[in-house]
Design a protein that fits this description.
Blueprint: E1 2-3, E2 8-10, E3 13-15, H1 20-27, H2 55-61, E4 74-80, E5 83-89, E6 97-102
Antiparallel strand pairs: 1-2, 2-3, 4-5, 5-6
């Protein structure tokens, strides 16, 4: 797909601007994702408890940090002078994702 200055062309055929998103979505499904427009919900009641034990406790009690059979997915993001990005490690469930987010 390329701009001709007076419209858009794909393989030599002219297309209207209303078809661009359909075509782009077929070629790159990521561009068809909906935006996040959730209404914020605030809950100031703490209904959970975080318990972080020391590594020594894990060793002494032979506690598994991630239980056997659990599905573990890890995410990370970084910002450096050369750019910003995110990654998702699926631990063999799916192909890992590396997402550049620009500068």
């Amino acid at each position: 797909m390329k701009s001709t200055g007076g419209g858009w062309k794909i393989g030599g055929a002219h297309i209207g601007h209303t078809r661009i998103l359909d075509i782009m979505g077929a070629q790159m499904p990521l561009t068809s994702m909906r935006g996040d427009i959730m209404v914020p919900h605030y809950c100031f009641q703490q209904r959970y408890q975080s318990v972080i034990t020391a590594k020594q406790h894990w060793k002494e009690n032979k506690t598994q940090v991630i239980p056997e059979g659990a599905i573990a997915v890890f995410t990370d993001g970084s910002k450096e002078p050369r750019g910003t990005g995110a990654g998702i490690f699926f631990n063999g469930l799916l192909e890992d994702l590396y997402i550049p987010l620009g500068k």
